[in-house]
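Today's session is about reading a structure prediction critically. Students often jump straight to the picture, but the first step is always the sequence itself: look for stretches that repeat, for charged clusters, for runs of hydrophobic residues. Only then move on to the predicted structure, which in these notes is written as discrete structure tokens rather than atom positions. Here is the chain we will use throughout the hour.
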Amino acid sequence: MIDITKLEQRVDLALETHKIISFMNQDNLFFQFSPTSLWKEFDKTFISWGKRGMALNTLDYLKYQEIYFENRGYSRYSLPEQELKSEQYLFILVFIKNYIHDVFYSTVGENKLVIDSIIDNIDLIVEKCNYQFHYVNTEDKYILCKRDENVDSIIQFTKENNLSNILLTYLDMSNYNNVFEKTHILMDLHKYIEPKRQDFSSKNSTLTNKVFSMYNKLQVRHNDNKQIDLPDDEKIKWYDILFQMTLHLIRTPYIIDLQSDVSELISEK
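Below is the predicted structure for this chain, in token form.
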């Protein structure tokens, strides 16, 4: 299967991730009470991290994503020689960014320069992979989202933070193949568009009817014998199509208003 993420990369993701991991291994990198490495500081503080789930240490946390760091002693970590999937390299970068945000957010002095340099590099790497970080205030974390021009256009004109969070959560890398999460996100999206159905229908009745019919048929709004029963991979495909169609529906009133403004401009003498 073709790795689309690799095709879009304008950077060597594996190399740059290795460089950050190696940089964090330096013993004189981070100054707490004595010179130490940033990975050592991760290990010292990991058990108190609120987002650790059931993991008890850094290595344990990464193993849940089938990422097996090699411990070369004294919390000096390296990646195995075999190449990982692009999503796994990105997961490592998301983990480092969120951990630093949660645990080392108040870092000052020389340590702040180190922290800022790592975060700046991570942000640049994901940007060159056609992703972008978004901070979700309700969950106090950064999520990594695939760039989507339709979502970007809606976020630019909407003032509704709830809608922005729904759209960005759907694009969250960690939900890419997660049927359960995508179902619930689409349920939230349906709750958003349902009260606006009449307005959407007045602007584009054909698109409105198709979108709402898809919510019914794909077991998002209802779950009975009238719905189409699909395997997970097919369901993901149609969920993504429904998501894009919903984006076009949400944008419809805005586009029509723009067209009206253009018509007025053209008609002016």
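Discussion point for the tutorial: The longest strand covers residues 131-136.
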